[in-house]
Amino acid sequence: MPSNTTASPRDSQVSASPNETSLTPENFERELKSLAVKAKDATWGRAARREALAYGRIILLLTLAAASANASVAALSPVFGTIPASLWHAVLVSSALFAGWSSNLHLRRLLLPNRPLAAFLPILAAYVPTVQYVLSSGTVSVSTWAGPRWGPVLIESLTLFPLLAATAACVATELESATEIDEVVHLPRWIGDALPGIGSWTVFRLAENFTAVAESPFSSAPRVVLWLTTRVASQLAIAAAYFIVSPPSRLWLYATPALLHALLLNSHIAGSPWALAATNRALRSDGWVVLDRRESITGYVSVIENLSQGFRVLRCDHSLLGGEWTRFPADPVAEPVYGVFVMLEAVRLVNVPGKAINDADATCLVVGLGIGTAPAAFVAHGIDTTVVEIDPVVHEFASRYFHLPVNHKAVVEDAVSYTDRLVAELSVEPEVRSIVIGRFDYIVHDVFTGGAEPISLFTLEFLQNLHALLKPSGVIAINYAGDLTLTPIKAVMLTIRAVFPSCRIFREHERKGSYADPDFTNVIIFCTKLGKQDADITFRAPLEADFLHSNVRKQFLLPKYEVVDSDFRSTEDVRIVRRNDTAQLAEFHAKSALGHWAVMRHVIPAKVWELW
């Protein structure tokens, strides 16, 4: 019985006659064209491009994770110091990556069944600077009650750990897709097996080294570039990058409060004028003000003034580089706050054989500037003074906000390379140091040593450079801050005496407290090129002109509290510190840095450290 319905083209296609599927020239040609199109779609080049995009996204995610890890340590360093902030950082980073990698499937299927995990990455990244600010400053003040050892662990556990774990989980997901692509292009199986674990970790470590905080090339760059290189701004830039690489989502609206806080209320953005004003509004009630601040190659550098007591200090991360009183006239030099820097000037008082050195004819090399207390005094005495300082911002702030005179030779360079070059220039044969004719009557070695001494400046090789540059009748003074109960001071003294046999050591203040307690102090080591058979180092009585109208110099210029070898209470055997053998100093950095942190919290209130 005939049907009343009309067959559609689709139905007619399905019920095609046998002739249409038979092996005719037309059908054969049509089939070839169809196969050609499919082959074109599945070419190796197209699959390779898809693979490159997949692995490119993986590399980008791992790079952002590495940059986040470095930025987190940098952001916590002004509150805890670089070494305490890094103490458990590597363990936490490894744990976060492992947790994210291993829990990838559970996060996707159980916790977030209907949301891509990558959509949460920008939110987590946006909240990192906000939560770190809240926890490290203000009323919460984790650094005060948790201390430098566990404070960074707690803060990063709530900020960096979730971000890295989520990123690692997303990377695992991306690698699963990339492995499927590998199968299309028939890559060897071992590549797909090795890449998820070893490959990801290798990429992360390479990215971590690549994005590590290094010497900034932007010292003369426009203000906007300087702002983008600051610690908190770099965290915001990383968050913005997460927004770019993550799939768009309405969840992003939840990041708005964190971004507004970071842009409007976070006073840690060092390059922003409004952030500086916000910092000073919070500090003025306690009598403090930040005059200027800048990110630099050695850390976060700022000039802080106590309005009520009338003194000014130069800060670098969680340490002080020096200070001077503002309530006393600088005539002819400023009145220093810390007496240890005055003791360095006693190199002029050391009795040397032969004719006394006339100040007008003397030359002095100062390694490490600080605020310039000792160099300013040498210049005031008429001594030709050269200052070597690695950090250009330290020199700029010392010249602008402290009384560092302009009539000195400034060398903004690493002291190791500078002295290497000078010794090579002065040597008849650069390989033979014994024939070098000294260039300086006085050398002052004054670099930061509060738990993070630049070890390269305490090696045998560097001290030999200074020995070569010191005239036969010259005197060197070396400032070292550390705990006399620990091993590094013994190793440093062994190394110094291997180069300068005749030395005497003096501490800043008389020892107080129990003999068994930690003994963190500044010591000044005075040495000459005289042999052991010569008489001990002695000081001439200072004249009124030596004090430069300074009451602090009257009190501290002449060293009083001598340190003897029995005061170094470590029982460990030590060896000379060489460029290729510095482990005995580095292994005590953490313990010394924790002690230095406690000292700094007594010198300057916690609120000043926490608000930057």
From TrEMBL:
SUPFAM superfamilies: S-adenosyl-L-methionine-dependent methyltransferases
Transmembrane parts of this sequence: 58-80, 86-105, 117-135
Xref: InterPro entries: SAM-dependent_MTases_sf (IPR029063)
Region (Disordered) residue spans: 1-23
Keywords: Membrane, Transmembrane, Transmembrane helix
NCBIfam families xrefs: MFS_SpdSyn
Name by which UniProt lists this protein: Spermine/spermidine synthase
